[in-house]
């Protein structure tokens, strides 16, 4: 039985005060009362504050990206081992904003995925198509290419410690959401690809959905057979909205 995962991606938002206030409210409201596993991924600079606020809580801490290298002359980058120092459990890899705005290609995403695993972090691998690709009927090919790029490097066994997040780029921060059927079809495709390598691992991997998830649609999305939670953007910045989504799981 797969446990629903709801992870909040704060992106480049927030302040030190907001970080502490938001996490304190989440801990107070969700600990011991939520059936889902919950994680928050604040900006790097607030990881220390978040780690302190989450100490003793059931809520997990994650980061928004990492460097593919272990250490060295990589100004501005953050190594997986550094994330370990702050008790991070998860790290987002291959988010569409990293791919589109910072030129991270499939090869680099695969290397980052591997770096996370080496430091015993659970990567949340983001995959998904643009609006143009969907309109051209290329969703299946894009998702397969992005997933295959990682599978071919790390192997199916590595996915027993990973999460896959399907995020249609056209639905991120736009208010548009894939229909239940659209989301389920792609999630089933991803699970099917993994099952071609190992059925047991495919059945256990959590595949979560990202793309304008809100309290109003979370329960229906999470009820779909192959949707195991959500990677939440804007709605994770407001305690009430994020709590509503978390409580919809289960």
Shape: globular
Structural class: alpha/beta
First-to-last CA distance: 12 Å
Task: Give, in spatial order, the strands making up the sheet with the most strands.
Answer: 7-6-5-4-3-2-1-8
Kindly state the number of beta strands: 8
Number of helices: 11
Major sheet attributes: 8 strands, parallel
Mean pLDDT: 95
What is the string of SSEs from the N terminus onward? EHEHEHEHHEHHEHHEHEH
Q: Helicity level, as a percent range? A: 40-55%
Query: Low-confidence segments, ≥5 residues, pLDDT <50?
Result: none
| Beta-strand fraction estimate | 5-15%
From the alpha-carbon coordinates, what is the Rg to the nearest angstrom? 17 Å
